[in-house]
Amino acid sequence: MRWRWRRPRAAVGALLTDGSAIADTALGAGFADQAHLTRTARARAGRPPASPRERRRAPRQP
């Protein structure tokens, strides 16, 4: 069961560290395309792969 998380986790980690496009990251992590990564991340974590990146960029509310 753990092997199902390796590629999505690696892709999200790469999105956070290098800032590349989601499509490029998806291909680099072994997914067929950006949609494949997005579907897999939503099925596993319940949210799209870019959501951690967006949360990092969002300014904090006082």
Characteristic key phrases:
62 residues, mainly alpha
Report what the structure shows.
The chain has 62 residues and is mainly α. It is built from 4 helices and no strands. The protein has helices at 3-18, 22-28, 34-45, 51-57. α1 packs across α2 (22-28) and α2 (22-28) crosses α3.
Describe, in short, the structure shown:
With 62 residues, this protein is mainly alpha-helical. It contains four helices and no strands.
Give the total of beta strands: 0
Helix content range = 55-70%
**Fraction in beta strands:** under 5%
Class from secondary-structure proportions = mainly alpha
Order of helices and strands: HHHH
How is the main sheet built? Answer: none
Morphology: globular
Average of the residue pLDDT scores:
78
What is the CA-based Rg, rounded? 12 Å
Cα-to-Cα separation, first versus last residue:
40 Å
Ranges with pLDDT <50 over ≥5 residues?
none
SSE topology:
Layout: H1 3-18, H2 22-28, H3 34-45, H4 51-57
Helix pairs in contact: 1-2, 2-3
